[in-house]
Specification:
Strand content: 25-35%
Distance between the termini: 21 Å
Helix content: 10-25%
Structural class: alpha+beta
Length: about 550
């Protein structure tokens, strides 16, 4: 393909992304910057319909799985071959799922039936700090006009940060921005037309403080989010922490986090029994309700139709207060961590939920955010900071942005600072999400960090590691696309290119967005690259998303 033709394909893919976002009810903001997911339902590979008898175990479904299309939801009662039975299930609001046991429900959407009142306090800078309260009106919608006025009036280059999230449950448990860490944005990411509370690498560590009045039993609670996660792995070479319940360092606390220091991509939990218990759950980056339910016998976690359990009796007692997104008082372990969420809602319940209640929450999240847990096609990204989204705000990395083009289950397992040795540790998570999947595609991009002083990995080992990664992904049923190295000084671009040419490294698809003449070829061009000449900036990630999708779309459609 000529460079002229490649440029044409790139522009066409970007235009297609705009079209699908508009089809999904997500017009851009006045600056044209708002990112909207998911893509139109018609890109879901024919799954934008009611389930049928042949949506069975042979297609990877299991009893209890959920299905959402057109605002209606179903649950699989039986998945016998050719005779699957799916029953309609009613959709409530996420905060209603646990009745009077809900102790906090908040976000930029209505989460509790009949709620009318303040939803968020946001801060903008218009020569000086300005606070605006955004309310949910009688129509159940956030005051979009007030938000757009605040966004339009803010100083150039600044964000709207969320200072307070009001509790819609009636308990008055409002959560407030961590002092000095006002990093959660609004107005940057929309999911199914809803504004989100958005974190990202560039946002920095921060989040919300739970009041001490939020009290739950150590062996009976629920924490859940609706929306998306930009990464299923450790952020900034540390650990994203969606929630900590209790008091950090007290010995009586619970936290959920992703990846841990092994950078393995799985959700981990910590409690009085252990500071790090790996679960079998990998959080998708596609719209999906995420929840962790604690009961006397352990934990049940869910993201979309993926479930995991951690068995064993939990200690009794009470967890009071805590943090959402980041623990400001947790010391160095937390000081590095960024959350990766783009959330339309947060719900906390104060009892051990029944399976019906947990299902009601998952159904509510799916309907609210047009999440499609029945999606079977999987795209996994494995790599380093250039895929995870270092220095990119609000989770807008290229794998996340690619979701504007089509519906599939997306998993970003990349980690800032990862060398190819670390990338080997991401393979079990990739293998786990491939089971029962439909079409499977993995995009691998890494090698630059191997030569850095902290790693000292020779180039021949870099190639061997990439060979192992490619081979194992193929064995798991993936079509493997390998992105060649950038032209950053020190990258093993020549060695990887030579290994591909000799057939030593044999991906199914080779991608080179850094070839001469393409927009990302010159790492000194600060239009598309950060000044460090290593990391694409936000524009660069948009180019990467369109380029990669243009090359892989035939595999996924």
């Amino acid at each position: 393909m000529t460079l002229h033709r490649q440029a044409f394909v790139l522009m066409a893919a970007m235009a297609a992304g705009t079209a699908t976002a508009q089809a999904a009810g997500c017009p851009a903001d006045a600056g044209g910057n708002t990112v909207c997911v998911p893509a139109a339902d018609t890109t879901a590979g024919g799954l934008d319909r009611a389930p049928r008898a042949d949506d069975d175990a042979r297609r990877g479904y299991a009893a209890g799985d959920l299905w959402q299309a057109g605002g209606q939801a179903w649950r699989a009662v039986s998945v016998a071959d050719g005779a699957a039975r799916w029953e309609r299930v009613p959709a409530r609001l996420p905060g209603d799922a646990f009745g009077g046991h809900t102790v906090f429900a908040g976000g930029p959407v209505r989460l509790v039936s009949g709620y009318v009142g303040p939803a968020l306090d946001i801060g903008t800078t218009v020569a000086r700090p300005v606070t605006t309260t955004l309310a949910i009106g009688g129509d159940g919608r956030l005051d979009a006009a007030a938000l757009q006025r605040a966004l339009a009036a803010r100083d150039r280059g600044s964000f709207a940060t969320v200072l307070r999230v009001y509790d819609q449950s009636g308990h008055g448990n409002h959560i407030t921005a961590t002092p000095g860490r006002h990093v959660v944005h609004i107005g940057e990411i929309r999911i199914a037309g809803h504004e989100t509370l958005s974190w990202g690498e560039e946002n920095g560590p921060g989040g919300f403080v739970l009041p001490d009045g939020v009290k739950v039993a150590s062996d009976g609670f629920f924490f859940g989010t609706t929306g998306t996660y930009a990464s299923a792995n450790s952020g900034n070479a540390a650990v994203p922490v969606p929630v900590l319940l209790g008091q950090a360092g007290s010995g009586r606390e619970f936290r959920a986090f992703m990846g841990s220091y092994p950078l393995d991509g799985f959700v981990h939990v910590a409690d009085q029994r252990s500071p790090d218990q790996r679960t079998a759950l990998v959080v998708t980056s596609s719209p999906a309700a995420f929840g962790v339910a604690a009961g006397p016998g352990g934990y049940v976690l869910q993201s979309g139709n993926a479930r995991a359990t951690v068995a064993g009796a939990l200690p009794g007692g009470t967890l009071a207060g805590g943090y959402i997104g980041y623990n400001a008082d947790g010391g160095p372990w937390f000081a590095q961590g960024r959350n990766t969420g783009q959330w339309t809602g947060i719900v906390i319940a104060g009892h051990a939920p029944t399976s019906d209640e947990a299902q009601a929450f998952a159904v509510a999240g799916a309907v609210a955010d047009d999440a499609m847990p029945q999606l079977r096609d999987v795209v996994v990204a494995i790599g380093d900071s250039r895929t995870e989204g270092y220095a990119v705000p609000d989770g807008r990395n290229w794998p996340y942005l690619m979701q504007r083009f089509a519906r599939y289950r997306s998993y970003n397992l990349a980690v800032s600072g990862a060398a190819t040795r670390h990338m080997l540790g991401m393979l079990p998570a990739a293998e786990a999400v491939s089971r029962g999947a439909g079409r499977r595609l993995a995009v691998v991009f890494g090698g630059y960090n191997d030569h850095l002083p902290g790693n000292h990995i020779p180039t021949d080992e870099t190639v061997r590691n990439l060979v192992t990664i490619t081979s194992r992904l193929k064995q798991a049923g993936y079509t493997v696309a390998l992105i060649e190295e950038a032209q950053t000084t020190g990258s093993p671009r020549a060695a990887i290119h030579d290994a591909i040419a000799r057939g030593v490294l044999a991906p199914d698809i080779t991608l080179d967005p850094f070839a001469p003449g393409l927009p990302l070829a010159n790492v000194l061009d600060t239009t598309n690259w950060n000044p460090d000449t290593t990391h694409p900036n936000q524009t660069g990630h948009q180019i990467m998303a369109a380029f990669v999708w243009a090359k892989i779309r035939n595999v996924m459609q």
